[in-house]
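Hi V.,

You were right to ask for the full record rather than a summary. Here it is.
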Amino acid sequence: MKDFEVPVRDAEKVQQATERKSSQIMELLGMKGKLTQSGALPSPCSEDGSESGTLQAYHPWSVYGVPNEELTSAMGRLRERLPKNGWRIVKEGPDGTASKAPQIVADSTDKEFSADIRLSVEPAGSDKTSLIEVTVVSACFRKQK
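Predicted structure:
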């Protein structure tokens, strides 16, 4: 994306909008559990820094502390509900990790946000916790001065 194509936005407002999109995904999961507590943070738009000065709001969080069956059901609900609520699923299936965790990648229909959702189900007796990991990112922007 060329510099002139990247919109200038208020970083705080973009972060708040990203958190609202995250909250929407939590509601669409239709479950209650323990949540990791974090807010959206500004992050460079590209890993190599080639888009110098461009940012995106980055909001990672997880829900855990519920039975594996409930986590699996919540992913199924999400798969059904995302397209009815302003999201387009662009990838669905196993992620690229060795565990081949179920993954849904969705873009908001307004093209302002993307979400990466992964289900990690651990076997009974494991010292690891089963959870759904969600990362919502905004479209790239330049910080308003």
